[in-house]
Amino acid sequence: MNAAAFSHPKLLEFAAAVREYLHGQNCPLAPETAHVLATGMVDALWRFATQYAPAGDVGKHRDAVIARAVGWMYDAEWLVEQWVALRLLDRDATHRLIVHDWSRHCD
């Protein structure tokens, strides 16, 4: 993962959303823990794409598969919608979902 990604505003927003979601699931997290979780999930998304969607076209996989691949055992649609809202994923007419700026993140 790009070192700058750890403090990127998108990642900070995603960490806050994860923390809020899990608090609602009766699983409160410290902000620092939510940040580590969010960072790991985004890194896992990029690794999943590298292996199973090398063109960045992760939308060929169901939301549930993407969620499980990054260790998210809650609402897969919620996760994907968060990533789309934050532009970590982009909607695509051909591939359904693609990793935003994939050429900058892929190996």
Describe this structure as you would to a colleague.
With 107 residues, this protein is mostly helical. It contains five helices and two strands. The protein has helices spanning 9-24, 31-52, 63-69, 76-85, 102-105; strands spanning 89-92, 96-99. It has a two-stranded antiparallel sheet with strand order 1-2. It starts with 8 loop residues before the first helix and ends with a helix. The model has no long low-confidence stretch (mean pLDDT 93).
Helix/strand layout:
Layout: H1 9-24, H2 31-52, H3 63-69, H4 76-85, E1 89-92, E2 96-99, H5 102-105
Antiparallel strand pairs: 1-2
Helix pairs in contact: 1-2, 3-4
Number of strands: 2
Number of helices: 5
Distance between the termini: 10 Å
What structural category characterises the helix and strand content?
mainly alpha
Q: Over all CA atoms, what is the radius of gyration?
A: 13 Å
User: Helicity level, as a percent range?
Assistant: 55-70%
Strand order of the largest sheet: 1-2
Q: Regions with pLDDT < 50 over 5+ consecutive residues?
A: none
Largest sheet: 2 strands, antiparallel
Q: Tell me what portion of residues adopts beta-strand conformation.
A: 5-15%
Mean pLDDT: 93
List the secondary-structure elements in sequence, H or E.
HHHHEEH
What are the main properties of this structure?
mainly alpha, two-stranded antiparallel ribbon
